[in-house]
Write a structure and sequence with these properties.
Strand order of the largest sheet: 5-4-6-1-7-8-2-9
Oligomer: single chain
Strand content: 5-15%
CATH superfamily of the largest domain: Alkaline Phosphatase, subunit A
Shape: globular
Bound molecules: calcium ion
Helix content: 25-40%
CATH topology of the largest domain: Alkaline Phosphatase, subunit A
Number of domains: 3
CATH class of the largest domain: Alpha Beta
Number of helices: 17
Largest sheet: 8 strands, mixed
Low-confidence stretches: 1-39, 41-79
C-alpha cells in the first residue's frame, strides 16, 4: 500500500523500486494473502506499458473509487474502516436454524447468536436456487440472464463485479471454499484464496477458524480494509453418515460433532412424513446443518479475536434451499428463501426482525456499495437495502422474482417465479407433459423412498408425478398453504391475482430482456 501511495504522491523515486507497468503495480498492491488467486484487470487499465504520467492521467477514471477510500492514501484513522464479512452456507433451508423455527435443541447456536446481535429478514430470497447462479447474482447485482451465469457458467467478462469495485477502492478481497462457483476467477480479484481442500472439503470448523484468523491478521498487517467471503460447504450433499460421504472420507472430510436420530428431526411440510428413509436422510442433513453452524461460529470467533468485530458488517445467508425434492434447484419457497442476517455493531439495532420487506440476491452488491458510500454502477437490477438496515422504510419491497435455468449437468429446466407475502406464481417453460425433471435433490434416499411409497399411496404418487412433470403454471395461496402443495392456477377466485402476477412477471422479463420472454408470451395464460 505504501508503494501505491508513494507512487501517487510522486515520491516513489526515493528508495522504492517501481515498475512503470501499471498492471504490475496494481497486482503487487493486491498481492497480499495466503495464496494469490489470479489476476484482476482494473477497468481502463489494460496490461500494456504505462509511464507514471499515463498512470496519473488515467487515474481520473478511477478517482471516484479512490476518493471513497481515502484510507488508501492514509488519510483516515484505522478505527473508521468498515470491513465486510459475508458468511454463506451451502444448501441450508431457510427454516433449519433455531432462530428461524427449527425445534431441534441447540441446532444452530452461532447463527442464533448472530441474529440476536443483528437484523434478520423473514422475506429474504436468493435469486436462483443453485450455487453458481445464486452466487454470481450476489457479486454482480444482476439477474442471471443479465450477468451471464444462468447455469454453471462464468459471468460475462463485460459485467462489473463487486470485487472489482472493492479492489479499486483498496480493499483486500478474500474467499474461502466454493471458489470455482464465481467465474472467471480473474473477474473476482481475490487477493487471498483458501480452497476447499485446505478447509476439510470446505466443512472443517477448526480450519475455518485458523484460515480466517490468518486472513484477518494479513488484512491488519497490510493496513487494508477487507471483504471476506467465507463459504461453508455444509449442509450440501453428501450428508454426514450417507453412503456418498463414505466414498469421500479419504478426501479430508471432518467428523461431525453431533448426530441426530431419525425421530428427532422435523420433516418439512412439502415432504411426506412417516417414511423411515426420509427421516434417516433428514437426520444426516441436520448433522451437516450443525457442522455448518460450527464453521459460522469459528469464523465469527476469529473476527472477534482479531479485534475487528466492531468495524465489520457481517452478512449471513444460505445460497439456496435444502437439497430435497421441492426445494433446491426449483422456484418454490424452500428453493430460494434464505435466513439472511446482517450484523453491524452500533449501526443496526440488535435482535431485530424485518417481517415484511422483500430483499433478494440482486440487492447484495448495491447494499455493500451503499454501506461504503461508493458509487452505484449502472446496469444493476437490485438496489440497496441499507435504509432497512437503519430501521427506515423503503417502498417497492413487496415481491421478488426468482429464476432457474439449468442443472450442473447442463439439463435445461427454465422456470420463473414472482413471489409476494401472500402468493406465488411459477412459470415452468420446460413442462410439456413429456420432459422429466431430473436433478441432484432427487439423489440419495428421499426421492427413492417417495417413489416406493407411491406404489401404495395415491397422495404421494401424485406428489411424485407432479414433481417429475410439473405443469406450465403454478399458483399458491401462501397464507392457507405455505408449503405450496395445492396448485390453484385454475381457481376462479384467484383469477385477478394470477393475471396481475403474470403481468408483473412479463414486465420484468420485458424490462430485463429475459431470453424466455417470447416463450412466456406464447405459453402463459
Ligand atoms: Ca448451494
Amino acid at each position: 500500500m505504501q508503494l501505491h501511495a508513494d507512487y501517487l504522491s510522486g515520491s516513489s523515486e526515493s528508495g522504492v523500486v517501481l515498475t512503470n507497468d501499471l498492471s504490475i503495480v496494481i497486482l503487487r498492491y493486491g498481492r497480499v494473502g495466503l495464496q494469490y488467486g489470479g489476476g484482476c484487470m482494473m477497468a481502463g487499465f489494460p496490461s500494456s506499458k504505462y509511464t507514471r504520467r499515463d498512470f496519473l492521467a488515467r487515474l481520473g477514471t478511477a478517482a471516484a473509487g479512490l476518493a471513497v477510500a481515502p484510507r488508501v492514501l492514509g488519510q483516515e484513522p484505522e478505527t473508521a474502516r468498515t470491513n465486510v464479512l459475508l458468511i454463506t452456507v451451502d444448501d441450508m433451508n431457510f427454516d433449519s436454524a433455531g432462530v428461524t423455527g427449527c425445534k431441534i435443541p441447540g441446532i444452530t447456536p452461532s447463527i442464533d447468536k448472530l441474529a440476536a446481535q443483528g437484523m434478520r429478514f423473514e422475506h429474504a430470497h436468493v435469486t436462483s436456487a443453485v450455487c453458481q447462479p445464486s452466487r454470481s447474482v450476489l457479486m454482480t447485482g444482476r439477474y442471471p440472464h443479465r450477468n451471464g451465469a444462468m447455469g454453471f457458467e462464468p459471468i460475462d467478462p463485460s459485467v462489473p463485479t463487486l470485487q472489482e469495485s472493492l479492489r479499486e477502492a483498496g480493499y483486500l478481497n478474500g474467499i474461502m471454499a466454493k471458489v470455482g462457483h464465481l467465474a472467471p476467477q480473474a473477474k473476482f480479484c481475490w487477493d487471498t484464496v483458501v480452497g476447499a481442500n485446505d478447509l476439510g472439503q470446505g466443512r472443517d470448523p477448526a480450519l475455518f477458524y485458523s484460515h480466517s484468523k490468518a486472513f484477518f491478521e494479513q488484512a491488519k498487517a497490510a493496513g487494508k480494509p477487507f471483504f471476506l467471503m467465507a463459504n461453508s460447504q455444509d449442509p450440501h450433499r453428501p450428508f454426514p453418515g450417507s453412503d456418498g460421504e463414505a466414498n469421500r472420507k479419504a478426501a479430508g472430510l471432518p467428523e461431525v460433532s453431533r448426530t441426530y436420530k431419525p425421530e428427532e428431526v422435523p420433516v418439512p411440510g412439502f415432504l411426506p412424513d412417516g417414511i423411515p428413509d426420509i427421516r434417516v436422510e433428514l437426520a444426516q442433513y441436520f448433522a451437516g446443518v450443525h457442522r455448518c453452524d460450527e464453521a459460522v461460529g469459528q469464523v465469527l470467533r476469529a473476527l472477534k479475536e482479531a479485534g475487528l468485530e466492531e468495524n465489520t458488517i457481517v452478512f449471513f445467508l444460505s445460497d439456496n434451499g435444502m437439497s430435497f425434492p421441492y426445494a433446491k434447484t426449483n422456484c418454490y419457497r424452500s428453493s430460494t428463501a434464505t435466513p439472511m442476517i446482517v450484523r453491524w455493531p452500533g449501526k443496526i439495532k440488535p435482535n431485530t426482525v424485518n417481517r415484511h420487506d422483500f430483499v433478494s440476491g440482486i440487492d447484495f452488491m448495491p447494499t455493500v456499495l451503499d454501506v461504503f458510500g461508493m458509487q452505484m454502477l449502472e446496469g444493476m437490477d437490485g438496489r440497496s437495502f441499507l435504509p432497512l438496515l437503519k430501521g427506515k422504510r423503503q417502498g417497492g419491497r413487496d415481491k421478488v422474482f426468482t429464476f432457474f435455468t439449468e442443472t450442473s449437468a447442463k439439463n435445461k429446466y427454465p422456470m420463473r417465479c414472482v413471489r409476494t407475502e401472500k402468493f406465488s406464481y411459477i412459470f415452468n417453460a420446460w413442462a410439456d407433459g413429456q420432459t422429466i425433471f431430473r436433478n441432484e435433490p432427487q439423489s440419495g434416499l428421499t426421492f427413492k423412498a417417495m417413489q416406493t411409497a407411491a406404489e401404495h399411496d395415491d397422495a404421494i404418487a401424485e406428489r411424485v408425478k407432479f414433481f417429475l412433470f410439473r405443469t406450465k403454471e403454478e399458483f399458491y395461496d401462501l397464507e392457507a398453504d405455505p408449503c405450496e402443495m395445492e396448485n390453484l392456477i385454475n381457481a376462479e377466485e384467484h383469477k385477478a391475482t394470477i393475471q396481475k402476477m403474470r403481468r408483473e412477471l412479463l414486465e420484468m422479463m420485458v424490462s430485463t430482456k429475459d431470453p424466455l420472454l417470447e416463450v412466456f408470451k406464447k405459453q402463459a395464460g
